[in-house]
Give the backbone structure.
Amino acid sequence: MMQVHFNQPYMAGEEFQNIINGALSGQISGNGIFTKKCHEFFEHRYGIRKALLTTSCSDALEMAALLADIKSGDEVIVPSFTFVSTANAFVLRGAKIVFADVQEDTPIMDVDTLEPLITKKTRAIVVVHYAGMACDMDRIMALAEKHGLIVVEDAAHAVEATYKGQPLGTIGHFGSFSFHETKNVISGEGGMISVNDDRFVKRSEIIWEKGTNRVAFKRGQVDKYQWVDVGSSYLPSDIIAAVLFAQLTRIDTIQKMRLEVWKRYDQKLKPLQEEGKLQLPVIPEYASNNGHMFYIVTNSPEERDKLLFHLNINGVMAVIHYLPLHSSSYYEDKHDGRPLPNTDRFASCIIRLPFYNVLSEVQQDFVVEKLKAFF
Ligand SMILES: *Cc1c(COP(=O)(O)O)cnc(C)c1O
């Protein structure tokens, strides 16, 4: 029987050659030639003030929490419908997470619900551009400015996506990207922080290099390097950067492939939406589509579970996510008890369909056929 996997890592071409060239260059530790190439790529393409590769998006978020100087007792507003790292990075600094709900039509933060959540202790808002769909950044930035808050964009899904034409991850004070193998451009594990505010640039390089001024030393700006601040080892091996750079040189091709897969699902599933069987993604007018993932929303949690089972036993490796963070076993007794109905609905009704660069039309037809058979 045919099996359609959920994900399949795609090698763009020069990954292995780059690794060899990196090794021959004499340095495979962090901040080597490929790391610099990746930084330049993103700084040039997106206009990022300072891009720093990290070993994961989780690390980039932890760096953002350190740079924002989050301390014990500070409050940070985070959507509940997200991956655990979005909140965990701030919990590690002692923050209290105030969970926000998502919109009714699209699982991105509902800006209308944010202002009442802001107190004297609020220090930051973390937005998640779910499926690469932008949150309403003008309104979020205005709110942050009014209350003196830091904005972190979790752009793990959002490489190549824009808000009113502006690249995501470049609008807030910080952005975090992921190059995990399930994302658009990949290096196995991997990530990046974008530092978009001059005030934080110098410190970002120090925190990145274990709290030392080694980056300045390597540039010849100081004659020895030493411990000057807190930090950790956030920089990846140049081998990771070598793989990532091979992906970046093919990013337009990768995006074209992914958008084709996305559009084919959208077209082939439109009839099921018209019959009221399921809902397809609704992309806000101000947002672009970066072909990160394709999800469907069922009419009830019971139907979602039955459909998922039906797909899985018929060879379609669809998956679900996210279990809401506000009712997770780690956070439920720390949450303030507010119900987050849209979060609960998406969490219990979303199915993510198999999605990867080289998913063929034959495989997609198979997925669609299994969906139709269920309904
Ligand atoms: C994948 C993901 C992360 C974590 O990325 P890693 O690179 O695996 O640390 C964080 N936030 C969101 C929304 C994600 O999807």
Summary: The radius of gyration is 21 Å. The chain has two domains: 15-248, 251-374. The pocket of pyridoxal-5'-phosphate is lined by residues 56-58, 82-83, 85-86, 128, 154, 156-157, 178, 180, 191 (CB under 6 Å).
